[in-house]
Amino acid sequence: MVFAETSVDRLVQVSASKMRAPEARLLAAAKIKAIFEQSANDREKRPVVDLAYVSACTSSLASNKWRDRAYFGSALEPGRPPGALDRVPRDVPLERGR
C-alpha cells in the first residue's frame, strides 16, 4: 500500500501513524523525502510538507537501542492518552538487551 501511494499528505499520515508497521512508516518517510528532492532537482513546485515533523515521527524507528519492548515502534514516541489504542502491542515482549 505504501509503495504505490503517491499522495504526500497520505504518506505523512502513514509516517506518523503508530498503528502502522515501523518498516511502512520508514518507507513513507523515504518516499516523502525523495518526492521533495526530486521536485527541487526538477525545479518544480515542492510539496508542502514539514520534513522536520516527518523526521521526528520516524527517526528512531530503525534503532535497536530505542525499540519499544512491549509495542511495535520506538520507545521515544509520545505516550498514549488514557483509553486510546494508538500502538500495536507485540505478542511476546522483547527481552532486555536485544
Q: How is the topology of this model organized?
A:
Layout: H1 8-16, H2 22-41, H3 51-58
Helix pairs in contact: 1-2, 2-3
Region (Disordered): 77-98
Biased composition (Basic and acidic residues): 87-98
SSE topology string:
HHH
Runs in which pLDDT lies below 50 for 5 or more consecutive residues are none
Number of strands: 0
Report the span from N to C terminus.
29 Å
Structural class: mainly alpha
Shape: elongated
Rounded to the nearest angstrom, the radius of gyration is 15 Å
Q: Estimate what percentage of residues fall within beta strands.
A: under 5%
Largest sheet: number of strands, sense, barrel closure: none
Q: Based on the structure, what is the oligomeric state of the protein chains?
A: single chain
Helix content: 25-40%
Region (Disordered): 77-98
Biased composition (Basic and acidic residues): 87-98
Q: What would you note in describing this structure?
A:
There is one protein chain. This protein is mainly alpha-helical and 98 residues long. The chain has a domain at 8-58. It is 38% helix and 0% strand. The chain is built from three helices and no strands. It has helices spanning 8-16, 22-41, 51-58. Helix 1 (8-16) runs antiparallel to helix 2 (22-41) and helix 2 packs antiparallel against helix 3. The longest helix is centred in the N-terminal third of the chain and has 20 residues, at 22-41. It is elongated, with a radius of gyration of 15 Å.
